[in-house]
Write a structure and sequence with these properties.
alpha/beta; Beta-Lactamase; Rossmann fold; 3 domains; 7-stranded mixed β-sheet; 6-stranded antiparallel β-sheet
């Protein structure tokens, strides 16, 4: 484990974004997109096995054995890591992404400034869509952090895994991880409605039950922010509607129409003129025309609704590329934002022994029956107490005299 923690410390100092470990070969890293080999850091097969045993608890180890791979997040040497362990020809291998300790703002992520309106919402559904690896989680983290810095709200996140850890500022943030703190997203959503949240974040909409419960939460007056794998706005709505039985599709469609506030599809594109990748967005707002298109199941008209809704800040990807990104002058280089760094959140990961069955029950305190309790007199006012003696407190008495009286 010390060899691993030293490696992660070195990677953070050298601004390395990814580390790859496999048995019998030198450690490989990625810096500024380029692969490099570290001939002086070689892991034996047994060292990799021992490292995995150190990193995983019993539950994660069981998942790895069943699926032959595992995704999880951990904090090592002060850095937040997203780790994938998988079985290959050389035994177990690890692909490690060192996450930035700093949560970037909407502007720093080179996103459209209209997204700053989302943290002001008090209710509704915000869907962030796109393929894997296109920055959906990072965009949502920026939105949540803006709420955290500007509003007094209770935020509960349901994630798989927890990548960015938040430090509560004006908002009170609680984060739950799939498998560690909840058995499923569906159960997490059932729980969260009893936890009096203002904002609910759902890491992934995949199962029909999760989609239905997410819509129910948005319909009940919460602000719900969720991710969905879809490449176009129409595909996102189509996937949600067709995830349920035919007889339930109209109900889902009406729920989407009544709750949808924003639908964002995000993809990363390379801009030759500035030499970096930036987000290219499709932005759909929950206007009356968009809601009618969804309600009437005319999803082929979504693009037309986007074009007619330009004054409402809506874009398809082409108009976003050819109008907004072409005219934007200032961009933040990704290396400045996504460089590996120490995690700002200082919270530890605490696993209650109550949940593992290792905690012993605390003996119940025996209280005197109310009939046997004698009062304490404070300036002729009676306060119930358990002592057999009566203590009279003079209002003019100093604190030190009072303490001495109690001791006696």
């Amino acid at each position: 484990m010390k060899k691993f923690t030293d490696l992660i410390s070195f990677a953070v100092q050298d601004v390395i974004s990814d580390v790859y470990i496999t048995g019998g070969l030198p450690t490989v890293s990625r810096k500024m997109g380029n692969i490099q080999f570290h001939q002086n850091i070689v892991w034996t097969y047994s060292e990799v096995d021992d490292l995995v045993m150190e990193l995983l608890d019993d539950r994660h180890l069981q998942d790895l054995r069943e699926r032959q791979s595992l995704d999880f997040a951990a904090t090592v040497s002060g850095a937040r890591l997203r780790i994938n362990i998988f079985s290959a020809t050389r035994g177990l291998s690890l692909a490690i992404r060192i996450l930035p300790g700093h949560i970037a703002s909407i502007d720093e992520l080179n996103l459209h400034p209209s997204l700053n309106e989302i943290p002001k919402l008090k209710s509704g559904l915000v869907l962030t869509c796109g393929p894997t690896g296109m920055g959906k989680t990072t965009t949502i983290a920026a939105i949540i952090n803006e709420i955290n810095n500007t509003r007094r709200a209770h935020i509960v996140t349901l994630e798989n895994p927890i990548e960015y850890r938040f430090v509560s500022n004006k908002a009170f943030i609680q984060q739950r991880e799939l498998g560690t703190h909840m058995p499923s997203f569906a159960q997490g959503l059932l729980d969260v409605l009893r936890e009096n949240p203002d904002v609910i974040v759902v890491g992934e909409l995949r199962e029909p039950e999760t989609m239905k419960l997410t819509l129910n939460a948005a319909e009940s007056g919460h602000l719900v922010i969720a991710t969905l794998h879809a490449s176009t706005p129409a595909e996102a709505i189509y996937r949600m509607c067709n995830a349920v039985q035919v007889e339930s599709q109209n109900e889902i469609r009406f729920q989407i129409a009544s709750t949808l506030s924003w639908l964002i599809v995000q993809r990363l594109v390379y801009l030759d003129r500035i030499g970096i990748r930036v987000p290219a967005l499709s932005i759909v707002r929950g206007t009356t025309s968009v809601k009618n298109v969804i309600r009437e199941n005319k999803l082929h008209q979504i693009d037309s609704a986007i074009q007619t809704g330009r004054n409402d800040g809506m874009y398809n990807e082409d108009s976003y590329l050819n109008e907004y990104l072409v005219s934007r002058q200032k961009f933040t280089p990704p290396l400045q934002i996504f460089r590996s760094s120490k995690e700002q959140a200082a919270d530890i990961d605490y696993y209650s022994p109550v949940m593992t069955g290792r905690a012993s029950r605390v003996p119940e305190k025996k209280h005197l029956p109310i009939a046997h309790m004698r009062p304490i007199v404070i300036n002729n006012a009676f306060v119930s107490g358990h002592d057999e003696h009566i203590l009279t407190i003079d209002g003019d008495e100093s604190l030190s005299d009072l303490v001495n009286s109690i001791k006696q």
